[in-house]
Amino acid sequence: MLEIDVPARLSGISKPRVALVLGSGFGGLSEAIENSESIPYADIEGVPQPQSGVAGHAGVLIVGDVAGVPVVVFSGRVHGYQGVSSRDAAYPARLASALGCEVLVVTNAAGGVNPDLVVGDVVLISDQINLTGGSPLVGWPGPAGGVPFVPMRDAYDPELRTLALEAAADQGVTLKGGVYAGLLGPAFETPAEVRYLRAVGADVVGMSTVPEVIAARALGLRVLGFSLVTNAAAGEGLSHIEVLEAGERARESLAELLVAILHGL
Ligand code: HPA
Predict the structure, then answer these.
(1) Whose CA is nearest to atom 10 of ligand 1?
(2) Which CATH superfamily is domain 15-263 in?
(3) Strand, coil or helix: what is 88?
(4) Is 202 exposed, middle or buried (0-12, 13-18, 19+ CB in 10 A)?
(5) How much distance in Å is there from the Cα of 34 to the middle of ligand 1?
(6) Which of 109, 132, 139, 263 is least surrounded by Cβ atoms within 10 Å, i.e. has the fewest?
(7) CA atoms within 13 A on the CB side of 109
(8) To test ligand 1's pocket by mutation, which of 180, 205, 226 has the most ligand atoms within 8 angstroms of CB?
């Protein structure tokens, strides 16, 4: 099933309103959580176990408050390229729904496909393209027992996007809009694939987020999403280290931006 029960380890926590998934570069938010309790994924039954690990993707769930909003924060996520199903890759959205969250904020590191984007740019995701070859909804009977044809228009909530733009303006952060293409990975894209992505309308490319957003919409959560451009897609010398380093440089300003957005929710 797409729907899951609240794991026993989390049965005592107070109900969060917003769930955030922190990708590379967005981890600084963890330090802004008040009254926080950190729970390693390993202690939570049902968290999908990846077959392979990637440095920089630590797994801990943090419960607490940010700007007075009760939140649950996923610090680290499991990706399809680690050998889990699309449904398991969507676990944060499924747990967020089980815990009663209204909003899911997804963040990620991404390669810039649009030549106007430079390393360090923050993109407010306006839409996505699912190129993972899978869907978390495959085989799901849907809430009414029928086939789950979930509408994906305005998957990234227009009202929340407006709020994010206002908060960013207050913070002096420039937010560019863009379409996120989600691929399975883990190989980075070839130059030919990057030309293809540009041709089909992508601005940024990554290996996460898309399954979470599909599951979130199926479960009725409102979604907001951000990409940090950590490299030019198919750039020379591209490595996971480069992605992590660019994330480290943006850490503080991204945390401040997320706090400002939560303040407005
Ligand atoms: N491609 C795919 N995923 C990524 C990239 C990229 O260039 N950078 C960070 N995540």
Answers:
(1) 110
(2) Nucleoside phosphorylase domain (3.40.50.1580)
(3) helix
(4) buried
(5) 31
(6) 139
(7) 30
(8) 205
Pocket perturbation via mutation, ligand 1, pick of 57, 132, 230, 245 by most ligand atoms within 8 A of CB: 230
Quick: pLDDT tens for 130-183.
999 999 999 998 877 777 899 999 999 999 999 999 999 998 888 999 999 999
Most distant CA atoms of the chain, gap in Å: 50
Classify residue 102 by burial, with Cβ atoms within 10 Å: 0-12, 13-18, 19+. Answer: middle
Expressed in angstroms and rounded, the spacing between residue 109 Cα and the centre of ligand 1 is 7
Which DSSP symbol is given to 187? S
For ligand 1, atom 5, the nearest C-alpha belongs to 111
Tokens 């401040």 sit on residue: 256
SS3 state of residue 175? strand
Q: So where are the chain's domains?
A: 15-263
Q: Measure the CA–CA gap between 197 and 131, rounded to whole angstroms.
A: 10
| pTM of the entire predicted model | 0.95
Best mutation site among 226, 231, 242, 244 for ligand 1 pocket (most ligand atoms within 8 Å of CB): 231
d(CA 107, CA 20): 8
Query: DSSP string covering 102-136, please?
Result: SEEEEEEEEEE-STT--TT-EEEEEEEEEESS--T
Q: How confident is the model at residue 56 (pLDDT cuts 50, 70, 90)?
A: very low
